[in-house]
Amino acid sequence: MIDELLSVFSFRILQFNKKPCTSILNLYFSLIDQHLNHTKTEVDMT
Q1: How large is the C-alpha radius of gyration of the chain?
Q2: Helix 2-17 to helix 22-45 angle, to the nearest 10 degrees?
Q3: Least packed by Cβ within 10 Å: which of 22, 38, 40, 46?
Q4: Is 27 within 8 Å of 18 (Cβ atoms)?
Q5: Domain range holding 19?
Q6: Of 38, 42, 23, 1, which is closest to residue 9 (Cα–Cα)?
Q7: Cα(16)–Cα(24) distance, integer angstroms
């Protein structure tokens, strides 16, 4: 499940990089980072 999320994220990031909207991109990145940090913590605990 996490792998699927990551592939979707990376695909979207690649698409985003082609567009010059950095503030939206930064917001998007911070949301991804928060989400990934949460899932990483949960995975590490198991």
Answers
A1: 12
A2: 160
A3: 46
A4: no
A5: 2-45
A6: 1
A7: 9
